[in-house]
Design brief:
The chain is α/β, with parallel strands linked by helices. Helix content is 39%, strand content 21%. The chain is built from 14 helices and 15 strands. The chain has helices at residues 19-36, 61-68, 87-99, 121-135, 188-198, 217-229, 244-253, 259-277, 297-304, 320-329, 333-336, 343-346, 358-365, 370-379; strands at 7-12, 44-47, 51-55, 74-83, 105-112, 139-140, 147-154, 157-161, 165-166, 178-182, 202-209, 236-242, 282-284, 311-312, 382-386. The strands form two sheets. Strands 1, 2, 3, 4, 5, 6, 7, 8 and 9 form a nine-stranded mixed beta sheet that branches. A hairpin with a 2-residue loop joins β7 and β8. The radius of gyration is 27 Å and the shape is elongated. It starts with 6 loop residues before the first strand and ends with a strand. The structure holds adenosine-5'-triphosphate and magnesium ion. Magnesium ion (MG) is lined by residues 184, 186, 342, 344.
C-alpha cells in the first residue's frame, strides 16, 4: 500500500437509526476500535459525525487494517490523505498519489459534501484529470479504470484515496445488549457466536460438561474456540455447568428415546436461570432446523416449552455447508472438528424421538427431582474469563 496515505477513514455499518442511537452507535464503535488497536501506541483517533479517522503515525498500516477487519460495525475503510480544501493542493496531491498506483488507466470521482467549496464535483474531476494527463502516461477510462481515485471535499478538509476495503458490517459490539450462548464443542455454536457479535450483541457463554463421560479435552476445545472468538469480543465470560448428575438421572429413569429431548429441556432451564442472573436479554444456540432429531420443529417446540425466555437461533435456516463455510472463515472449524465427544454424542440414543409428546415428557420428568439438581449444578458452576 502506498506509504503516502497516513490516515484511515472508517465508514460505519448499518446506520439506519438516527439521533441518540446514532450517537451511541458511533461512541460504542469508537471505543471498540480503540480497544482493538490498543497494541499500536502511536495511533491517534478522531471521531467526526460521519466517519472515524485513525492517524497512522509510526504504525504498520497493513496490521492495523487487518485488525479493523474484525471489528463489527465497520462497513468499510480506506487509506486516505487529508489535505486543505484548495484546488491547487488537491491537484498536486492527487498527482503524487496516483503515481504510486499500479495501472495504465484512471478515473477521478469527486464528491462535494461541503457545498461552500466553490468548485463543483464535475469541475474538480476535470481539473485533476487534466493535471494527471499532462504529467503522466495514464489514460482516462470512465467505465473500467485500473485506478479509481476518489476525492471527497468535506468541512474539515479534502480526502483523497484509491481503495476501499470491505469490513464486517453489522453493529458495534455492545449496542444491542447481552446474550447467553449455549456453547458446545461442535461446529455450529461458534458460528452462532460470530453472527450474534456481528449484530452488536455481546456474548457470555454457558457450557454443560459431563465428566468423566466427557473428556477434559472438550474444555480445552471450548477455551480455544473462545480464544479465537476474542478477536471480535476481547473478553468472554464462560460458565461451565457440571451436568453429570442430571444426565445420569435422565439416563437411569427415562425411556431412551426421550433422553435427548429431556436433557435439552434441562439445559434450557439452567440457561434461563443463568441468563437472568447475568442480565442477559436472550439465550442463543447453534440449533439448525432439521439437522438432528432434537432439531425438528416438533422437537424444538417440545424443548422450548420449558421457558418464555427469548431464544435466538442464528443458524435456524442455514444449511450445514453454509455453516461450515463461515466456521472456516472465522477459523473455528479446525478446532471444532477435533475428536472429543461432548455430552450429547456420548449419550446419543439409537432412536431419538423426532416428534416428542408433551404428556410423555411430563410423565418422565416427574420421575426425577430435577429442580434440586438444577440448583446444585448452578451452585457448583465454574466461571472462566477468556481474554
Ligand atoms: P454444535 O455443532 O454447536 O455442537 P450440533 O449440531 O452438534 O451443534 P446439538 O449437539 O444438538 O447440535 O446441539 C445444539 C445446540 O445446543 C448447540 O449448537 C449448542 O448451542 C447447544 N449445546 C449442545 N450441547 C451443549 C453443551 N454441552 N454445552 C452447551 N451447549 C450445548
Ligand atoms: Mg453438538
Amino acid at each position: 500500500m502506498a506509504s503516502r496515505y497516513d490516515l484511515i477513514m472508517v465508514r460505519f455499518g448499518e446506520l439506519s437509526t438516527k439521533g441518540k442511537n446514532k450517537k451511541d452507535f458511533i461512541q460504542t464503535l469508537y471505543t471498540n476500535i480503540k480497544n482493538a488497536l490498543k497494541s499500536f501506541p502511536s495511533l491517534e483517533f478522531e471521531k467526526l459525525y460521519d466517519h472515524i479517522y485513525i492517524h497512522l503515525g509510526e504504525e504498520d498500516c497493513e496490521e492495523v487494517v487487518e485488525r479493523l477487519k474484525d471489528v463489527s460495525g465497520i462497513h468499510s475503510i480506506s487509506l486516505v490523505k487529508r489535505v486543505v480544501s484548495d484546488i491547487e493542493v488537491i491537484k498536486a496531491t492527487a498527482l503524487e498519489l496516483i503515481k504510486e498506483e499500479e495501472g495504465t488507466t484512471f478515473k477521478i470521482k469527486s464528491k462535494r459534501a461541503n457545498k461552500e467549496f466553490p468548485i463543483k464535483s464535475d469541475d474538480i474531476n476535470r481539473a485533476v484529470a487534466t493535471v494527471i494527463l499532462k504529467n503522466t502516461d495514464l489514460k482516462v477510462n470512465v467505465h473500467n479504470p485500473d485506478i479509481l481515485l476518489s476525492i471527497e471535499v468535506r468541512d474539515e478538509g479534502t480526502y483523497i484515496f484509491s481503495k476501499t476495503i470491505p469490513c464486517l458490517g453489522g453493529y458495534p459490539l455492545g449496542v444491542a445488549g447481552k446474550s447467553l450462548l449455549m456453547l458446545s464443542g461442535g461446529i455450529d455454536s461458534p458460528v452462532a457466536a460470530y453472527l450474534l457479535m456481528r449484530r452488536g450483541i455481546t456474548l457470555e457463554c454457558i457450557h454443560f460438561a459431563s465428566p468423566p463421560y466427557t473428556n477434559v479435552g472438550v474444555i480445552y476445545k471450548i477455551r480455544d474456540l473462545l480464544k479465537t472468538l476474542t478477536k471480535y469480543q476481547s473478553q468472554i465470560r464462560l460458565t461451565i455447568i457440571p451436568f453429570t448428575e442430571i444426565q445420569e438421572a435422565i439416563y437411569k429413569n427415562i425411556d431412551e428415546s426421550y433422553c435427548i429431548t429431556i436433557m435439552r429441556r434441562m439445559m434450557y432451564r439452567i440457561a434461563e436461570k443463568v441468563a437472568r442472573e447475568r442480565h442477559c436479554k436472550v439465550i442463543a444456540t447453534g440449533e439448525s432446523v432439521g439437522q438432528v432429531a432434537s432439531q425438528t420443529l416438533d422437537s424444538l417446540q417440545a424443548i422450548n416449552e420449558v421457558t418464555n425466555f427469548p431464544i435466538i437461533r442464528p443458524l435456524a435456516v442455514m444449511d450445514k455447508l453454509e455453516i461450515i463455510k463461515v466456521a472456516q472463515h472465522i477459523k473455528t472449524y479446525d478446532i471444532s472438528i477435533r475428536p472429543f465427544e461432548d455430552c450429547c454424542t456420548i449419550f446419543a440414543p439409537k432412536n431419538p424421538k423426532t416428534a416428542p409428546k408433551l404428556d410423555e415428557i411430563r410423565k418422565f420428568e416427574a420421575k426425577i427431582d430435577y429442580e434440586a439438581m438444577i440448583k446444585t449444578a448452578i451452585e457448583k458452576a465454574e466461571v472462566e474469563i477468556i481474554n
